[in-house]
Amino acid sequence: MYIIGIDEVGRGALAGPIVVAAVSIPKGFYPRQAALPKLRDSKKLNPAQRLLWFRYVKNHPKIIYSTARIYPRKIEKINIANCANLAAYRTFQKLNLSTKNISVFLDGSLYLGKRAAQPPFAKTVTRGDEKFTVIKLASIVAKVTRDRYMIKLNQKYPEYQFHSHKGYGTSAHRKMLRRFGPVETHRLTYLKEYRTIP
User: Fold this and answer.
1) Residue-wise pLDDT tens digits, 142-175
2) Could you tell me whether strands 2-9 and 64-70 are parallel, antiparallel, or unpaired per DSSP bridges?
3) Does the pTM of the predicted model rise above 0.90?
4) CA distance linking residue 177 with residue 172, whole number of Å
5) Beta partners for residue 125, in sequence order
6) Which residues pair with 186 in a beta bridge?
7) Per-residue pLDDT reduced to its tens digit, 96-140
8) Fold of 2-193
């Protein structure tokens, strides 16, 4: 039997994709933490700590993971919640595991596809990234994956300093938006709804 954790990052960002990760571990498996920082949700780890755990997940023979991204154009069309659930479904499908012997736990407001049609082996857990080891691992994979993308995107749009704020609504990002205006990687509905640009 396998236990799968699914989490997302980038829901509140003003630019870049939302990224969802799924991590699968055998039932009863617990990652050894010797020489590693205490396992926490990605938001409670610094970049160096997240990278150590990401490498652990990537290289461990008993752990399987996958990621999926949804970009701003799609977010504009079907909204962020639907995009997050779509990405959750895609990343789950990429694991290519039989649904007979699995339990899937999703963090927060994530659902495996449409909320009303979520399969019985899947459960959405409030603050799951604080309760389930496998969701903590998924949050780390999602965060490292998205951060790397935004750092790479910084090479295309250096004036926005994506490497430092990763597309979130920091004062530095807002300053760049006021100066240069949005580009294709920005979520225009976010800029309008939250009045990020005075």
Assistant:
1) 999 999 999 999 999 999 999 999 999 999 999 9
2) unpaired
3) yes
4) 9
5) 107
6) 15
7) 988 888 999 999 999 998 888 899 999 999 999 999 999 999 999
8) Nucleotidyltransferase; domain 5 (3.30.420)
